[in-house]
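User: Hi! I'm working on a homework problem where we have to compare a predicted structure to a textbook description. Could you give me the structure for the chain below?
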Amino acid sequence: MIDNGYCTLADLKSVMRIVDNVDDAMLESRIEEASRVIDDYCDRRFYVDATASDRVFLAPSSDYVLTDDIASTTGLVIKIDSGNNGTYSTTLTAADYQLEPLNAVSKGMSITRIVATSPGRFPTTKAPAPVKITAIWGWPAIPYPVRSACILQAGRLTKRGDSLLGVAGFGDLGAISVRNIDPDVQKMLAPYKTATLA
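Assistant: Happy to help. Predicted structure tokens:
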């Protein structure tokens, strides 16, 4: 069984033209491995938590907070530590902030920034972290390029079994390696790379 994979077993088997079930467990393992490679490469993940949980954040400006990926507005609660004592006693209302990118969830994107609707709303102290957010973390839907990248990378990892020394063949520039993330996968994932880990 695949745990938070970015493509299905049927997706991979279709691309690899596999019609039997002999290697299904191994293929599922490659899909999961490829999915975690994608997580590491992008510094984020594209699956959604089952329930909301708390995370704390620093505010680089009193006007906004950058967050990990928020997958839904359901259960979203934003609290601030106005007294700099770790109690997060002030709960913001929806009128106090704007979620960005605008309309992110309806476009299948995550929310990554919270902007105050009035200046100076967020404390900028460094410790304790002044903003606590309760949210369902992750990405609302797996983007199509991420799905395609997972299929390609999982196929590459599967073929590695046929080339234990890490060489799949030879091209114009020499040996073709199967050890690293595929260059085409890197291109597909480039728009999704971030410095913030969800």
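For your comparison, note the following. Helices lie at 9-16, 24-42, 144-160, 183-189. The radius of gyration is 21 Å. Good luck with the assignment!
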